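Here we describe the complex-level prediction in full. Unlike the single-chain runs in Section 2.1, the two entities below were treated as one system.
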Amino acid sequence: MTAESFEKEMNRGFVQLLVLLLLERDMYGYELARELGERGYLLEENTLYPLLRRLEGKDILASRWDVTENKPRKYYGITPAGKDVRAELLRIWREQAALLESLLGGIDHD
Amino acid sequence: MTKNLENYLNQVATYLVGDREDIIMEIRGHILEKAAGPEGEATPEAIDRVIEELGDPQSLASNYSEGKDIILPHFRNLMFLYTGILFAIHLGATAVAAVTGGGVAVFPLIFVPELGSIWETLFFLPFAFIFDFGLVSLVLFAVSQSKGGLKLPIPTVDSDQDRPSPWVLLYMGLGLAAVAAAWQYAGDWYQAGNVTIIMPTQGFLTIALVLLGVAVWFYFLKVLSRSTFMRRLLAVLGSVASLAALIITNAHLAPGTRLVEGVDPEHARLNEMGFQALLVLIAVLITIDLVKHVIRLFAVMGTRRARVEFAPADSSDWSATILRLALYMGLMVGAGVFIHHVPWLFALVALGGLAWLVSWHSKRFGFRCGKCSQEFEISFLADLISPHGFTKEPGGGLVGWHLLRCPHCRKWSRATVVKKLTKPEI
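The structure predicted for the assembly as a whole is:
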């Protein structure tokens, strides 16, 4: 397995958490990708859009089309069920981060 | 709108599952908005650039299908197992159809039409296989799509017939000889007091001889095989060959050989019915055996053979080798005295004995490369045809060698004999 595929594996859950945190207010896909890019995290669109669909399919996100302008946009927002999932994911992430820190504490870094 | 954009979206749509219109609309919006950038106008060049960033249409569409498998990946083995079982039954039904001359139907899974010739049978079987594979796929598709998490049955059978014995081979050989001997009395009948003894017809004996011949041949190959997988594969192939032999032999029986000679028409009809019933019974029994062999084969597929350890050969290995050589020499002398006037039988005994000897040797011993000192196993064939001899060890004792190419260093050398410590079984 290459470093790139390891990164992809690790990012799976992390990206979901990022999306759930950002969608506290409704955003459309391109806006979400741009927001993440501005914060220094480059997320490929061919990963982002399918992810939004999957989360919507699980009722974690809700969507609506905005066709008031000449550019139709699909806005996504987090649902109450999504907020519960986000809280759970954050708890897991904090526990994992704490475990990692405790493990790395004894290792002499290069 | 550029032509490239429409082409790209069409290609993505081809591979999409689910709400295609909605997904395509969203991707289109994304491409146009990103291509427009801060300037607010999407040029064809900018659109092409965004399309390039999105990547291969099939790959993009496949990201939307994640978790939407047509058939769940963990059903793969079951798919082949179920297809194997169903096709085995189809094969058996084909044999029954061939020997009765009519069609066979076991509603709703098995159907074999009336097959006029061997060629029709041969052409029918691929269709049967595709039907079986399709039917199993359909069932697994339905189960994969069901939300209830249905559990599928996994058939199992005992596997105590894995270790073939040379003694069984001998008994089978004697049975074959008995049937061959009965041949000359085929269809005769004798009156012994009040009891009438009717010998089987020549047609029946022909089929018995062919089926026994196939069984002996495959059992012999099983005796020579080293791995459980190979033995189980041979068991499957043996049953398939038996069914094929039954179909072909039945189709080529000489006219009049199926009946007992001299019986009246009414009895001849009963005789034919009895003959067919017997062949149907044989076909059913072979099919049951085939299904069991298929299940056994799938139980060991994908497993690996245990790692084999080696040690220097000692005096017990020499004794065992000399004993077997002496037995073989005794067999040859006996064959020379008693059956020298039947050359084909003499050759059969000589070759069978040699195969037994070499098979035993290749199972019991490995070899140590003369160049890199790595140890390795060799096949029955390599053991049979590689030049070999003896040489003196530095300590003064004798050691056997074979001229072999080492699988590790790829060099030819006189590889010395070592014995295997663990059995090469799964």
